Amino acid sequence: MEKTWNNKAWFLVLPMLVLVAFSAVIPLMTVVNYSVQDTFGNNVFFWAGTEWFEDLLASDRFWEAMVRNLIFSFIILAIEVPLGIFIALNMPKKGWGVPVCLVLMALPLLIPWNVVGTIWQVFGRNDIGLLGYYVNAFGIDYNYVQDPFDAWVTVIIMDVWHWTSLVVLLCYAGLVSIPDAFYQAAKIDGASRWAVFRYIQLPKMQRVLLIAVLLRFMDSFMIYTEPFVVTGGGPGNSTTFLSIDLVKTALGQFDLGPAAAMSLVYFLIILLLSWVFYTVMTNYDAER
Amino acid sequence: MARIDVNHIRHSYLPNPKKDSDFALKEVHHVFEDGGAYALLGPSGCGKTTLLNIISGLLHPSHGKLLFNGSDVTRLSTQERNIAQVFQFPVIYDTMTVYDNLAFPLRNRRVPEADVDRKVRETLDMIDLAAMANRKARRLTADQKQKISLGRGLVRSDVNAILFDEPLTVIDPHMKWVLRSQLKQLHRRFGYTMVYVTHDQTEALTFADRVVVMYDGEIVQIGTPAELFERPRHTFVGYFIGSPGMNVLPVALEGKTAMLGAQRIELPGAPKAEAGPVELGIRPEYVRLGREGMAVSVSKVEDVGRHKVVRANLEGREIAAVIGEDDEVPAEPKVRFDPAGINIYADSWRVEMGA
């Protein structure tokens, strides 16, 4: 059949293009617009070129927030993934315990971010907070408002409390999909508890674990609300992660240019990481 | 190798079984002789797999005892019983190579690596996967995976018994035949005690020396393939074994004669009187179609290749007869029952016939 060559097909994509334009491209373009201009108010803008980007990449403040953020992500992954697997392995597979455990596990996930922040903000206070008061009563000097280490501990425990459930639920879904025959065969083959985990459960959880790591990494890399509510990024800048830093720059100091440059760089980093994960996952699927 | 005594075993999946129908296994009392090849035959849900899992220790029976060579193993775990079992669907360890999959049961038991290698290579040759030894197991096809499962069952030579739970379900018909004869050969060579669960009568009859037919949680008959065919102890065995199954017709007894409606059928002997509804069972292979005997109306003739199956109506009852491939159905068809093939059943159980 003769093919007709024209551009009419574009009309078919048009509605979607318009939608995406309004929801993503146009807002993003305004950010690009800010990132290459300077303003002294009154809606007067001057061309700044790549100045903001150069400043940003040369600024210690940005890199410190980045390193803090990476360390944070690494720590919570190192805790949440093994802990999540451990809890999932010990959850009941049948009986009345299943719904009870699932509901308990899902509870933290249902609480809005800023409420989680508020809960821990109060919980950790050493005058009226249950946790803060008793930790101090036991003679441990704990004060997340003044001590950077205590602030980090609080933020990390809060994230573990909030998000380990996600890893648990994903792993649990992977675990219950393993047919009984595998466990029976393992018994027949004389496999130890460790061998069952290593050769049956872990391989079956691999896919969901990959997704869990991806989700947790992305989320923790973009974390904002909870630490903002608890510590406000302090004491000093000790818990100022990238997004908190960004908001401080944009709304606190009203430096729209540098903030726009920062959000673009931030966006590119996330895009890059998503691409890396996507590639790893699709390669992994192709290999199967 | 071991002799397995199944001593009055009952099993229920319910916590507090009361009625007979609460039991998946009503009462099984049987001895699997050392080195025997047994098939457990029966329809889905008759308790075959339950019995198998009790022998391997994956299940512990509610009542009764299990003995291996005379010693009680009822409460021992699967590992302690040293049993091999192959399941219906392939179970492979995804991340391991074919070789490591087969080595797994041996390595778990701390067999020296030299022996592991020897045994694994032997088994690989047996299941015809030697060329794929170093491939990742998860890339294989379903029947290759099932061969690995089989191989893992066969790789240990010191096991008390090898149990097969419908192992050839996922295998191609052609390959089924090859594997089955290989199993049979293995049995002859090494004298393993083998118990083979299946709902496929051909599989059971070709594999086993003795077939154990189960129905509704009970063993209804144990016998050689010929016994099951000629003298089914229960009408269920008659229906279940043979293709088509046995014709079972309600009759009234009068000494050495069975009355089927208006027809009189001479029996080889007088059945001992028993309570319950009386039925006459005759295999289609013993129904002679010709010009004399009881008049029937033929409803359909199925040509199944080697022979023909004639479906006919006798006194308002459907019966089947088997005739030769080249035989024709006569114009006014009549049937005779060969006395050698007649069995009488009272309340579904076979009764002996006297002289």
What does this structure look like?
The complex is a heterodimer of chains A (about 290) and B (about 350). Chain A has about 290 residues and is mainly α. Chain A has one domain: MetI-like (MetI-like fold, Orthogonal Bundle), CATH 1.10.3720.10. Chain A is about 75% helix and about 0% strand. Chain A is built from 12 helices and 2 strands; from the N terminus they run αββααααααααααα. A two-stranded antiparallel sheet of chain A has the order 1-2. In chain A, strand 1 and strand 2 form a beta hairpin. In chain A, helix 4 (about 95-110) crosses helix 7 (about 150-175) and helix 11 packs antiparallel against helix 12 (about 255-285). The model of chain A has no long low-confidence stretch (mean pLDDT about 85). By secondary structure, chain B is of the alpha+beta class. Chain B folds into 2 domains: about 5-230, Rossmann fold (3-Layer(aba) Sandwich), CATH 3.40.50; about 245-350, Nucleic acid-binding proteins (OB fold (Dihydrolipoamide Acetyltransferase, E2P), Beta Barrel), CATH 2.40.50. Chain B is about 25% helix and about 30% strand. Chain B contains 9 helices and 23 strands. In chain B, the strands form 6 sheets. A 6-stranded mixed sheet of chain B has the order 6-7-8-3-9-10, sandwiched between helices. Chain B has a 4-stranded antiparallel sheet with strand order 2-1-4-5, with helices on one face. Chain B has a 4-stranded antiparallel sheet with strand order 11-15-22-23. In chain B, helix 3 (about 100-110) packs parallel to helix 5 (about 140-155). Chain B is globular, with a radius of gyration of 24 Å. Chain B starts with a strand and ends with a strand. The mean pLDDT of chain B is about 85. Classes of the chains: A mainly alpha (about 290), B alpha+beta (about 350). Chains A and B meet through helix 8 and helix 9 of A and helix 3 and helix 5 of B.
